[in-house]
Amino acid sequence: MNFIKKNGAGLLLCLIIAVPSWFLGQAVPVVGGPVFAILIGMGITLILTKKEPFTAGINYTSKKILQAAVVFLGFGMNLTEILAKGKQSLPIIVSTIATSLVIAFLLYKALRLKPNNAILVGVGSSICGGSAIAATAPVIDASDEEVAQSISVIFLFNVLAALIFPTLGAMLGLSNDGFGLFAGTAINDTSSVTAAAAAWDGIHASHTLEAAAIVKMTRTLAIIPITLALAIYRGRKENRSEGSSFSLKRCFPFFVLFFVLASVITTMFQLPGTVTGPLKELSKFLIIMAMAAIGLNTNIVKLIRTGGKPIFTGFCCWVGIAAVSLGMQHMLGIW
Asked: From the CB of residue 278, how many other CB atoms can be counted at a distance below 10 Å?
């Protein structure tokens, strides 16, 4: 009862925002429910005169519900199937992830970006957009405004990629397999990968969508080593500043362990789509609900005023990933 009394109002507000955002995301998948939720949340917080009754529930949703969403995401990961079908794309995936992280690090130094902004944009660009940001944010203790800004940057280039890449692929003479790899490695969010591959299939009467989705799911596995590496790095850094010894238990992101466990359960027991499908949808809905909370905690005026450097970083990561994806295909003779 104390939990409901403390968090109920904020949880209910996030749920009320999440429901229409979910349906809007279904209607306009290239934008996606999380972006709608952030925008609605930022709009409501401008007119919400008394926020205190909702604060605890909003904060709980933006932290704990977000972590639960990542755990449920694991039930959509059959490791055997993904690695069997996606192993051809592994060299390209590793190269594009490394490229994005290096670009983000260099621009963090050159532009004096906030460290969390650089990490979230770099990880979101290289792995899987909103899901990667959702998994990384709790590990690096990112603020809600930093998460909202990163999601907005990723969204911008997702939309551009979904609109531009099918035409670009045709101009470059990509094969159906080549475009599947290109879309799966160079577009961040699943909905935008799906939109671009579906557009390609419509133009070329092919079946690229499944291949692009498998490559995208293979990329998603990088959440595991990236979040663990960031947790260890952050833990060591904090211990140095405090003068204490390093403790893996203290810095370990246990929700990532549960994500891995969910993936292992799905793989070992070959859970059917009738089981994993609803759990994946629940994960998506919880991410939308968490993004509603993040929107409610975000000052849109400040977000716009400070958005130039993250947008430029996202643009450079986007261009770098696309160029490396195409270059690696050419080197491997897939193009």
From this structure: 12
Q: What mean pLDDT is reported for the chain?
A: 90
On the question of pLDDT at 20 being above 90, the answer is yes
Closest CA to 180 of 210, 158, 212: 212
In this prediction, residue 243 carries a pLDDT of 65
pTM for the model? 0.88
Using the structure block, give the residue that is written with the tokens 């949703």: 61
Token pair of 12 as six digits = 């209910």
pLDDT tens column, 196-219:
998 898 888 788 888 898 898 889
